[in-house]
Specification:
alpha/beta; 43% helix
């Protein structure tokens, strides 16, 4: 009897550990075109808020923007939250180089105060080897990739060959080590048939490669979602009245747009709290040669897209953004 009870307890403990490892915290890679707009920095700040809540573990930040400002800017954001050593990857075949002036102004104002020891963090490295290493070192089916920019890095990861990092090809690594991809790209409801969304426009070939051959489930956040998530700068003024040196907020002030559409923040929020959103039917997303996209329903299809938001859903999501962004940074909390 004692042996049976002990065996049951062991099974429960093993299952509990397995479930905890699978769900809390969620291991993510954040792939971004940071520097082209300010919502990437706000999305990264949202990620840090969820790290402090024990909901996420950020393995790496990889950029598709080749600006020389990006590594320092990302390190400044991470350093503000006490995590300056998170690996940073830069593109070797960039689709874009955009030196957003707000990045330079924010770095000039805050870098010394946000990074505790600027000499300590490792330098940025090429994105594809970094992605391969992060995946190779991770448990199977444990990593969720969040893409809020162009598909440049992920297409090159998909096509990467076996090497000294792993005997698996990029496609094999993705299939074994990741559970899903969450993408801000395309449009599925409210745009003309000839509309090409920006995250596809700048590297159509890479977007088509990912859409055609990504081996695990993909959730797509279309342009129409962020278009309903409008955040006035004056609302950020109220949120950060007690913390005016929060880097992403400083960037928003320098960006100078009175009302921002928060496309990129929906991706990490969905990763942790999908109940804020509704998904369309399963199917397959296709990106045509001209960059327009189509969705074809398929039973057991790989892809889902986020349904257009109601007014009530938009309000709830914006409230969640505000609440998470307003949390204290909890530097070195983990």
């Amino acid at each position: 009897m004692i042996k049976r009870v002990f065996a049951v307890i062991c099974v429960i403990l093993v299952l509990s550990a397995a479930l905890s490892a699978a769900y809390y915290p969620k291991r993510i890679v954040f792939d971004t075109d940071i520097g082209s707009d300010v919502d990437d920095g706000l999305a990264l700040s949202l990620i840090h808020a969820m790290i402090a809540r024990g909901e996420l573990d950020l393995l790496a930040v990889t950029s598709t923007n080749a600006s020389a400002l990006v590594p320092g800017y990302v390190r400044m954001l991470n350093g503000y939250f006490g995590r300056p050593d998170i690996p940073i990857g830069t593109p070797d075949m960039p689709a874009m180089l955009m030196d957003g002036n707000f990045m330079r102004l924010t770095l000039d104002a805050l870098e010394a105060r946000c990074v505790a020891d600027p000499s300590a963090p490792p330098p940025a490295e090429p994105a594809v080897p970094l992605l391969r290493r992060v995946l190779a070192e991770s448990p199977d089916r444990s990593v969720t990739i969040l893409m809020v920019g162009f598909a440049t890095n992920l297409a090159r990861l998909l096509d990467s060959p076996a090497d000294e990092i792993s005997p698996l090809t990029g496609r094999e690594l993705i299939a074994r080590k990741t559970d899903r991809l969450i993408v801000m790209a395309g449009t599925f409801n409210d745009r003309p048939a000839d509309y090409v969304e920006n995250n596809i426009r700048f590297d159509i070939e890479a977007a088509r490669r990912v859409a055609d051959d990504w081996p695990v489930p993909v959730v797509w956040e279309g342009h129409e979602i962020g278009s309903r998530l409008l955040f006035p700068l004056e609302r950020l003024d109220r949120i950060f009245a007690a913390d005016p040196e929060m880097p992403a907020y400083v960037s928003c002030r320098h960006f100078g747009i009175p009302t921002m559409a928060l496309w990129d923040l929906a991706v990490p929020l969905y990763a942790v709290h999908p109940d804020y959103f509704r998904l369309g039917p399963p199917g397959r997303v296709t990106i045509r040669e001209d960059g327009t996209c189509a969705f074809t329903p398929e039973e057991n299809g790989r892809d889902r897209y986020i349904e257009p938001l109601t007014d009530e859903e938009s309000t709830r999501i914006l409230e969640a953004f505000g609440w998470l962004l307003s949390q204290p940074p909890r530097r070195n909390a983990e």
